[in-house]
């Protein structure tokens, strides 16, 4: 990874290790810690309820922790305007509550058993309570959002519509004759990247940044969100450890087709094992022997290089957009994030 801070800010800066182990300007890091501490306080306050079960269930994932990636993007984006502006902390809590609410619903749909190292809410209680808890978090997000003005409400509503559309499109699959890879990338943008884009958009907008800056930050953050998901696709197949947060090959075992698999099925490669790999990708891979065979073939397939090239292109597109913004420590942190998302896949 390049030292973005020294290269792009005109000279070396005092740094420390920040999120994802990235070098961070010390002043920016201190401000971000204060911001995220305020976010955590408001987040816990927002999910409290006088109903004991709802109170326990709504705190279940909040207290499990997490990177708070979306609130971090809110505060970084705010440095293109006034980072002390009112509304930034509530906006960060809005995006985190929305994200957490989707996790409750996702675990029900996926029949998950574990989330962030804890028993998932649908297992600890049941599907109905997990769904209702997710709904409660959405409601609490809306309550905070109402104080931020009509434009943030509109932005959130449109992002939420994209989240739902992405989930429906993922569930139903591509229509007959549609390009499966194009469909997958659109699902990824809607379901994953849309809320990451809103995080940057809220930070820039509520800090009073110029409209052109808000648009650039929004677009770059969406691309960063896409890049993170593509890197997760690659790590799920290629890592020997659990770098992706899941046991390697989990997507294969669960029949989830990700970017490298779409490339294989779309005709990338012409090796002697291609027909066998395509046959396996269409099969039930819950069998350990078949799963191991498919994983080994996929790791050695040129589709992996194609997926890495796709990831690099998306990250570089985000980086190029960010470099049109005024130079500051926040821009350096965001461009370093673009480098990181590529290097994490090796």
From TrEMBL:
<dbReference type="InterPro" id="IPR000092">
    <property type="entry name" value="Polyprenyl_synt"/>
</dbReference>
<comment type="similarity">
    <text>Belongs to the FPP/GGPP synthase family.</text>
</comment>
<keyword id="KW-0808">Transferase</keyword>
<dbReference type="InterPro" id="IPR008949">
    <property type="entry name" value="Isoprenoid_synthase_dom_sf"/>
</dbReference>
<dbReference type="Pfam" id="PF00348">
    <property type="entry name" value="polyprenyl_synt"/>
</dbReference>
<dbReference type="InterPro" id="IPR033749">
    <property type="entry name" value="Polyprenyl_synt_CS"/>
</dbReference>
<protein>
    <submittedName>
        <fullName>Heptaprenyl diphosphate synthase</fullName>
        <ecNumber>2.5.1.30</ecNumber>
    </submittedName>
</protein>
<keyword id="KW-0460">Magnesium</keyword>
<keyword id="KW-0479">Metal-binding</keyword>
<dbReference type="GO" id="GO:0000010">
    <property type="term" value="F:heptaprenyl diphosphate synthase activity"/>
</dbReference>
<feature type="region of interest" description="Disordered">
    <location>
        <begin position="1"/>
        <end position="20"/>
    </location>
</feature>
